[in-house]
């Protein structure tokens, strides 16, 4: 075995190759900003004003990163998250601005209500209950508004039952049959999301999200969720988080013949950055190893906050 581990041979014998084409860059678009704002719990990561998003996309494109997923921080919030599907909302403005400058950028949008609701939950609320069915029309309308503004892919993340079907019907009924859906199909109620809630200002006012996000103990449930989304019309399915759920990624890849995405989430990023700051590990090397593990587990696409810093390594 050691004969095949010689330095000259290692490159040609790699079983898994991480590529810039595999990576999707998350971008936080904040309608309330005039200058970029560094997120305290996510060192070296920023929220950008709308005009700053164009500059950030340009920087990424120059180093070979072409795919982006946009998250919005609106100027106003209400009980139903109406700024999410406002045709002049923050994501809609950002999509038009970026599309005008870059024909070849792949623009994906997070389709959810949590950043836009006053209570911070991913759906319509009645008392202390998050209502599934009344939420579907609002999610579908949000996806349609993104497609109209220039999204290449819409990515529903709220884990509402029937969300993929509602979006597919809304898009098809309005002439957007060619817009793919990348569904957050197996999204766990994870503790790894905390920094994101600060980044996207999407903390919830009461309770938790366990009534609609998955139980961290379950694997079979993830397969059922993914299968349902595929039946409803998902073109790409996703597992989130990634690092603690490599077994789910592998099982999904083995079970379903469909493009598979994984989300290397904010808490995973923050742990690496915190240890790097203390000098405990080589941040870039660890990030590369983590992303390689996610790819090796079976992910075709990886959403990651590490994309820019390791682009030169791959």
Automatic annotation (TrEMBL):
Q: What positions does the entry give for 5-aminolevulinate 1 binding? A: 197, 209
Q: What class of enzyme is it?
A: lyase
Residues binding Mg(2+) are 225
Active site location: 187, 240
In short, the EC number is 4.2.1.24
What GO terms are given for molecular function? porphobilinogen synthase activity; zinc ion binding
User: Which pathway does the UniProt entry assign to this protein?
Assistant: Porphyrin-containing compound metabolism; protoporphyrin-IX biosynthesis; coproporphyrinogen-III from 5-aminolevulinate: step 1/4
What does the entry list as the binding residues for Zn(2+)?
A: 112, 114, 122
Q: Which domain of life is it from?
A: Archaea
Identify the CDD domains for this entry: ALAD_PBGS
CC per GO annotation = cytosol
What reaction(s) does this enzyme catalyze? 2 5-aminolevulinate = porphobilinogen + 2 H2O + H(+)
Task: Tell me which SUPFAM superfamilies the record gives.
Answer: Aldolase
Positions of 5-aminolevulinate 2 binding: 266, 305
Q: Which UniProt keywords apply?
A: Heme biosynthesis, Lyase, Magnesium, Metal-binding, Porphyrin biosynthesis, Zinc
Q: Name one GO biological process term.
A: protoporphyrinogen IX biosynthetic process
Q: Note the subunit structure.
A: Homooctamer.
Give the UniProt family note. Answer: Belongs to the ALAD family.
Protein name, entry field: Delta-aminolevulinic acid dehydratase
Q: Which organism is it from?
A: Archaeoglobus sulfaticallidus PM70-1
């Amino acid at each position: 075995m050691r004969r095949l581990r010689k330095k000259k041979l290692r490159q040609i014998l790699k079983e898994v190759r991480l590529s810039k084409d595999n990576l999707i860059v998350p971008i936080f678009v904040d309608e309330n900003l005039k200058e970029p704002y560094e997120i305290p719990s996510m060192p070296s990561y920023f929220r950008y004003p709308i005009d700053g998003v164009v500059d950030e996309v340009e920087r990424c494109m120059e180093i070979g990163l072409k795919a982006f997923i946009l998250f919005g921080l609106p100027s106003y919030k209400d009980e139903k998250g109406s700024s999410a599907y406002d045709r002049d909302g923050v994501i809609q403005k950002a999509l038009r601005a970026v599309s005008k400058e870059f024909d070849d950028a792949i623009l994906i949008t997070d389709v959810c209500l949590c950043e836009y609701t006053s209570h911070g939950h991913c759906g319509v609320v009645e008392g202390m209950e998050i209502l599934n069915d009344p939420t579907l029309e609002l999610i579908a309308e949000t996806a349609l508004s993104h497609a109209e503004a220039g999204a290449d892919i819409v990515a529903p993340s709220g884990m509402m039952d029937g969300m993929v079907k509602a979006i597919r019907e809304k898009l098809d009924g309005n002439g957007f049959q060619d817009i793919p859906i990348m569904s957050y199909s197996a999204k766990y109620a994870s503790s790894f999301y905390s920094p994101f809630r600060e980044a996207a200002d999407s903390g919830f006012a009461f309770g938790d999200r366990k009534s609609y996000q998955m139980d961290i103990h379950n694997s079979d449930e993830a397969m059922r969720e993914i299968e349902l989304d595929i039946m409803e019309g998902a073109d790409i399915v996703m597992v989130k988080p990634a690092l603690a759920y490599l077994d789910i990624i592998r099982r999904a890849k083995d079970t379903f013949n469909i493009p598979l995405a994984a989300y290397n989430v904010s808490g995973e990023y923050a742990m690496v950055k915190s240890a790097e700051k203390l000098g405990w590990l080589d941040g870039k090397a660890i990030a590369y190893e983590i992303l390689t593990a996610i790819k090796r587990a079976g992910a075709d696409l990886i959403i990651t906050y590490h994309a820019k810093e390791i682009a030169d390594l791959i």
